[in-house]
Amino acid sequence: MGLTCLKPDQTHVNPMSTSDRKAIQSIENVRVAARRVGRKVPYLRDNPRRLEREAGKAAARLGSPDFKVGTPGLIRKVKPDGTKRSIHRFSVSDRIAFRAVFEVLWLRLEPFVIPAICYCTFNRETGTHPPRGVPAAHKRLAELRRTRGSWILKVDIEKFYNKVPRVELCKVLRALLIDSDAADLAEAVLEVPLPTCVLSPEERDLLSDGVAQGAATSPLFACLYLRSFDQFLEKGDRFAIRFVDDIVVACSSESEAEAMLAQIEAELRRRGLSLKSDKTEEVSPVKDIVYLGARITPRGRIRPTARSWSRLLSQLSARAEKLGHHSDMRVASELAGCCIGWMKARRHYSFRRSDGRRLSTQMWNAVSQKVPNAQRVRKLVNSASLRIHRRCRSLPEFGNLLNGLE
User: Fold this and answer.
1) What is the domain range of residue 338?
2) Is the pTM of this model over 0.70?
3) How many folded domains does the chain comprise?
4) Pair (202, 243) in one structural domain
5) 403 with 353: CB under 8 angstroms?
6) Gap between the terminal Cα atoms of the chain
7) Cα–Cα distance list, 79 to 46, 83, 106 (Å)
8) 27 in the Ramachandran plot: left (φ > 0), alpha (ψ -120 to 50) or beta?
């Protein structure tokens, strides 16, 4: 069942997709992820040789006929609504193994799981479909709102990853993967043991099925399971966008939106899934819609949400906390870097001069909480603003924002 036993279909798969090569290629993916949690596993940043040894272990395990995923830990992430999301925390070797399996399966499954309406991203430049992602989904929805005054039905699948029926998913995999070795490998990474920590009855029930949140293969498998649902949404040249479990469908009237909601609920019920009632919304042509972290106006302008501004202030405040431990120049540089990162993640937005003024206000508020001296605050904010100007003045999409930045 190991990767070295796979016989790639020459139509879809690069014949060089061997375990060693793919595992080694996965090192950088794991290193990037490790930077985000570097305080918890610092050796990943500071000891590349340790990481390479882990890749070697992963390759050896994948070549074994009895390969299994190790027992993961669990991270309980608190969402904005106060509920908790359980995310699996896998060992480095397991994360590399997941990524290696993903690399092998990608070109086999990609033609099936990314139809026209699916905008999910898998960090892949190769494949038969054009690049997708959040910016592309935003632009597509903005174009619709700009050119057609449609009602928009917005729905969200409840606990999607946890509720994907694993048995049914395995049947879909067996039907599409003509190579039995590849299918065996896919099933092996699907069978994730329950975490060792103490679980509530609800958590135990949720984690006993579905696909593991935190595994590189899970988005691919989850989208594969919704392949037939995507085909249903595409019928009749209907406009629809699905990004994992967030779905929007264009309708000609409110009554059509209500009818479509009933059809979607029925289709998902057939697949063992359901909708979140509190996130179901029918948006009229004259109201803004918030989708995938952006506010899209009836005129098709993509704008930041109040929540994104609030999160930026929290990030700036965390940088300002370093005052007293680091020089003002270094803190100003970090404030600027934080703002630039926020801007570049939204470079497809329709920024205004008022956004630049608001950015200055955010930096001022963050610094003034730590520094009572107004003159010093002004100097810090001006220094950060100057750095933002220097690094972004060649980017025309930020022209309006920079004009308002003091």
Assistant:
1) 305-403
2) yes
3) 2
4) yes
5) yes
6) 61
7) 31, 6, 30
8) alpha
